[in-house]
Each structure stands twice: as structure tokens, then as C-alpha cells.
């Protein structure tokens, strides 16, 4: 796994030929048990890396299109799975917990629900107040700029726009870690504001 | 290939298990012929992507440890190869051109020679004045911070430090594209200054 901007935050990626971007997963390494977000299959090397750092406690899935290797990793690690409450009735795998707005997964990691994306109640996560972690709605197919999930995939563009406005109002965001594409490590708030502005003017 | 911050700059990567970083290559897409920098092997998908964008004119190799797939790609594309002049006597493959300080490879892409790295005269490239492209000496094993090639690999730490000071004096640098690890897309000059300062104080 690759180190993000903090030594307790790691990532692994798979290149997607359809979109020419990397799909990313995140591991937050914690003494009380790691939290994995939208985990892709792990190579043997990354498995060993992850397990050398301790136990995995939770797997958080932001939306049903990002289940990826969650079940296999849960089976292998004994981690519990958390998914979006708004998808509870139809989620393809069983979750130990269903998350909605304001829930705290573990101390320091809280949930925001986004609306209008390709699935209802897509989760965005706020880590230590200044790191935003997004699944599908907010992404970056090009380095150094955020974009929205393309319009044809949005269930409700107006609701999606309102969710982005809300993310853009979080003035403390420094880092935006995206599930699909290029993450932003500095001035995340400004990038979210630029995205929100683009939606309004576009 | 993935899009960097400009639509005419693309990258492809291979994860390196020894260092837990991505090794990166760059393609600068140009009507007069693309320039590839330190090219890794290309997947079939990336080959098709590259060739769909036109001809490849030049392959630039920053140092003899970054030859990677240059010869195979040159054979397949007809591109010419350029390598560091200071390694001319011992370079493992033949180059069509040997580059040194101040050379212009194609309009907009100029050469700086770095000293004290693991090989003599390692090339750094300056694209359009505000993009610095580095091979081995300046790198990022962790997102959002630059580092120097680890000390045991430096031929001359003092000369390396002086080269970094020189890079840090380029106040117009916004972007630092590294061969190994995480590139910087904003405020590159400040990151280079922080690196130089760390060398001085360390």
C-alpha cells in the first residue's frame, strides 16, 4: 500500500481502463483496529503490509457500486461491514451496521449522506474534521481538479448539486480523498468551492 | 494512461513493492510528436491510448536507473532516445542525443543537470517554466511532501543538496512531477523550498 499524507493513512489502487483513472481504497491504521474504505482486492504484498500493521475492525462501503472485495476481506480479517442505510433494503451483501447522516463509525470518523448520486444516501466520510473521503459523487478524472459523477449517472442532479454545496461549506477541509481518480492534499476547501461554483454556473 | 493536471500531460504507473510507491512515466502529447519521459512498459490499453493521440517523437531518460522500457518503445514507435550526457560513456543503451544543462529538447522543454545523485548528471526537466519533472533525486514516498533520494544512494550528499537548493530557487514552479511516488500539483515552489530547508537543517 502507498502512504497518503499521514503515516496512518494508506491507499491501494487499480487502474480502470474505461475511465483512465485509478480506483482507490483507503486504510486508516488504528491501534483499536483498522478501518478500510471501499476496499479493492489486495495483492499478496498489500495483504502482508496490512496485516503487519494489526487487526482490521471495520470495512466501510460508501455505496453499492463500491462493494468491491469487501466480503472476501471481511471473511479473511473478521472485520465488520458498514454500508449506507438508504440502501439497506437492496444492498448486495449483508452489513453489520447501516450508516446515516451524523453517525460516528469510530471516534474521529463521521458520516455525511449525499443525495442525488447514482445510489441513494451515498456516504461521504469526515476524518478528523479536515479530511473528506468521497465514494462516487465527487471524483477527479484529471489531477488537481474535482468533478461530479457525470450527469447521466445522477439520479437527481439538483439534489447532487445541493450535496456538493454542503461539502463546499466545510471550510476546514484540507484533503479530499476520492474513491475514483486523483485526490487533493492541500486547500481541499477551495477545490470543493470551485466544484460547487462550476455546478451552479454550468 | 491517466490525465495529469493538463490534458496534454498523461501518466502511467507501476507499483513498486520494495518502496511502497508508484513508479511513474509521463507522456507529453504534442502535434509535432509526443515526448515520453522515463517510460515504463505500457499495457495494451495504454499503447492504444498513446498511439491514438499521434506519433511519439522523443523518449527522454533522466538517468540510467530509469531506462525501463525505453528501447522497446523506441523500437515500436520509431522515437529517438535522449539520455544524460554525463552518463554517455557507460549508458546501457544507445541514445540519439545526450543532454546537458540548458539544452532544449523540443520547444518548451529544457534540461537541468542535477549533481550528487546516484548517477552523474541526472536530468531534471523544466516544462513551460512552471512544471518541474524529476527522475530519482527528488521524489515522494508519502503524499504531499517531497524527499531526497535516501542518503546511502547519494554519490555526493553536498552536491545533491546544492542541486536541490537550485531547484528551490525556481520561484515559478507550480507542479513537481516525480518519477517515483506522489507528484505535487500546487505550490510546487513551496514544497521544493521545504525540501531544501529540511536538507540544510537535517
Task: Explain this structure.
The structure is a homodimer of 202-residue chains. The first copy, chain A, has one domain (2-201): Metallo-beta-lactamase, Chain A (4-Layer Sandwich), CATH 3.60.15.10. In chain A, strands 1-2-3-4-5-6-7 form a seven-stranded mixed β-sheet, covered by helices on one side. In chain A, strands 8-9-10-11-14 form a five-stranded mixed β-sheet. In chain A, strands 12-13 form a two-stranded antiparallel sheet. In chain A, helix 3 (157-168) runs antiparallel to helix 4. The first copy, chain A, is globular, with a radius of gyration of 16 Å. The model of chain A has no long low-confidence stretch (mean pLDDT 97). By secondary structure, chain A is an alpha/beta fold. In chain A, a hairpin with a 4-residue loop joins strand 2 and strand 3 (21-28). Chain A has helices spanning 44-52, 70-77, 157-168, 188-201; strands at 2-3, 9-16, 21-28, 34-37, 56-60, 80-84, 97-99, 104-106, 109-114, 122-127, 131-134, 138-142, 145-148, 175-178. In chain A, 21% of the residues lie in helices and 33% in strands. In chain A, 49% of the residues are buried. The A-B interface holds A 1-5, 7, 12-13, 15, 17, 20-22, 45, 49, 141-145, 182-183, 185-187 and B 1-5, 7, 12-13, 15, 17, 20-22, 45, 49, 141-145, 182-183, 185-187.
Amino acid at each position: 500500500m502507498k502512504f497518503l499524507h499521514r503515516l496512518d493513512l494508506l491507499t491501494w489502487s487499480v487502474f480502470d481502463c474505461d475511465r483512465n483513472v485509478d480506483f482507490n481504497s483507503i486504510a486508516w491504521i488504528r491501534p483499536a483496529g483498522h478501518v478500510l474504505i471501499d476496499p479493492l482486492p489486495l495483492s499478496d504484498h498489500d495483504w502482508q503490509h496490512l496485516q503487519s500493521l494489526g487487526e482490521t475492525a471495520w470495512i466501510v462501503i460508501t455505496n453499492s457500486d463500491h462493494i468491491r472485495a469487501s466480503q472476501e476481506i471481511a471473511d479473511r480479517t473478521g472485520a465488520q461491514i458498514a454500508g449506507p442505510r438508504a440502501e439497506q433494503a437492496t444492498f448486495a451483501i449483508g452489513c453489520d451496521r447501516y450508516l446515516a447522516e451524523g453517525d460516528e463509525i469510530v471516534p474521529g470518523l463521521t458520516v455525511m449522506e449525499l443525495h442525488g448520486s447514482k445510489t441513494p444516501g451515498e456516504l461521504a466520510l469526515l476524518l478528523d474534521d479536515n479530511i473528506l473521503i468521497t465514494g462516487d459523487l465527487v471524483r477527479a478524472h484529471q489531477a488537481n481538479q474535482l468533478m461530479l459523477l457525470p450527469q447521466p449517472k445522477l439520479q437527481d442532479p439538483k439534489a447532487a448539486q445541493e450535496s456538493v454545496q454542503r461539502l463546499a461549506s466545510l471550510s476546514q477541509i484540507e484533503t479530499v480523498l476520492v474513491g475514483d481518480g486523483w485526490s487533493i492534499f492541500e486547500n481541499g476547501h477551495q477545490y470543493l468551492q470551485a466544484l460547487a461554483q462550476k455546478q451552479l454556473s454550468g
